[in-house]
Amino acid sequence: MTFCEHVWAPLVPVMSILVALACVGALNTGIMGHSRMVFAAARKGDLPCMLSTLHPKYKTPVLAIWTVVLYGFVMMFSGGVQRLMQFIGLYSLILGLKVIVALLYLRYTKPDLHRPYKVPLLFPMLQAVVSIALLLLIIYQEPAWMLFGVLIYLLGIPVYLLGVSWRQKPKIVLLFTGHLTSFLQKLFQLVPS
């Protein structure tokens, strides 16, 4: 029996609809928000430039949206929706921990830097401890799958080094990426941003 059935059984259909709407809203926000991050990173030069293209009429980063959606499908089909949610939780904890470490590092190395708001150090330290505890708990519960998730996360490092930071690529690689960019621009009717 669910919580809603215990509290008020006639509300079960309404709650189901509200939960479904909340999931659709979260999915929409995730796809649009993450695709804009991919677009911004590509425009800055941290991702392949083909991801920084826009649709001329709607001004949306169509290729970045499809990249995020396809990545989500690959992750989902590796173990279902439950596994996808576990990976998202793992990645969110890792990213949050990186932000906290960066904040603590900057507070230590540049204490006199002007900040609009200075967070008391107790809060980031407490959040770091909780994040580490949650990460260890997640890894302890399903070590094989979480190791797989961490390996996928770490796979981004060589992809970044080979695809973005390596400036003197062979001519054949530049030719291939140029043709691929041109093909995708024609396929999705995109223009450079």
Structure description:
It is a single chain. The protein has 193 residues and is mainly alpha-helical. Helix content is 75%, strand content 2%. The protein contains 8 helices and 2 strands. A two-stranded antiparallel ribbon has the order 1-2. The longest helix is centred in the N-terminal third of the chain and has 33 residues, at 12-44. It is globular. The termini are far apart. The model has no long low-confidence stretch (mean pLDDT 86). GO terms for molecular function: L-amino acid transmembrane transporter activity. This is Cystine/glutamate transporter.
Count of individual beta strands: 2
Radius of gyration, in angstroms, nearest whole number: 21 Å
Compute the number of helices: 8
Average pLDDT, rounded to a whole number, is: 86
What portion of residues is helical?
A: over 70%
Main sheet attributes: strand count, strand direction, barrel closure: 2 strands, antiparallel
Structural class: mainly alpha
Envelope shape: globular
- Beta fraction: under 5%
Uncertain spans: none
Distance between the termini: 52 Å
Q: Name the quaternary structure.
A: single chain
Succession of helices and strands: HHEHHHHHHE
Strands across the major sheet, in which order? 1-2
